[in-house]
Structure formats: C-alpha cells, structure tokens
Design brief:
The protein has a single domain, classed as Alpha-Beta Plaits (2-Layer Sandwich). The protein has helices at 10-16, 25-28, 31-40, 67-77, and strands at 19-24, 45-54, 57-64, 80-81. With 85 residues, the protein is an alpha+beta fold. A four-stranded antiparallel sheet has the order 2-3-1-4, with helices on both faces.
C-alpha cells in the first residue's frame, strides 16, 4: 500500500496508539462528533481510518497512546476495546 507523505500507516498507529476503542458510526455522526472532538482535545488520541463494518454497521476507531485515556473515553462514550472486536 502506498501512503502519502506524513500519513501514518496502520502498523505505526497500532504500535504507537495501541489502546483502541470502536464506536458505532451512527453514534459518532452529527452533534456527537463535535462533543467527542472536544472531549479528546487533551487526550493521546489518533483516529484510525477507515474503520470497519460488522453486523450491518460501520464503526469508527479511536486509538490512544495511554490506556488511561482509552478507559476515560470508553467510560464517557461506551464502545468496545480492541480485544472484543
């Protein structure tokens, strides 16, 4: 796969932001998107795109360098940690 200059590879994201939470795409859309962006402003976050499609739904993946940030995010918005996908 070819990446544009400065674009992070999936391998690099998995290595540097290993704590990953998936949220349903329909939850992330609209008003919730702004709320999530504001909440993540001071967290160690990197959003991984594209997400994945399962059970007739799209999911967005938010990746965190710090486990505590991932747990804080999950406590606020729900979602599933990477081990349960």
């Amino acid at each position: 796969m070819v990446y544009r200059k400065g674009e992070l590879s999936k391998t690099q994201i998995d290595r540097d932001w290993p704590h990953q939470v998936a949220l349903p795409g329909d939850f992330v859309a609209g008003h919730n998107h702004k709320m999530i962006e504001e909440f993540c402003r001071d967290l160690s976050v990197c959003r991984r795109t594209p997400g994945f499609y399962r059970d007739h739904r799209w999911y967005w993946i938010y990746c965190f360098a710090e486990r505590a940030d991932a747990e804080l995010f999950r406590a606020r918005f729900g979602g599933a940690m990477a081990q349960s996908w």
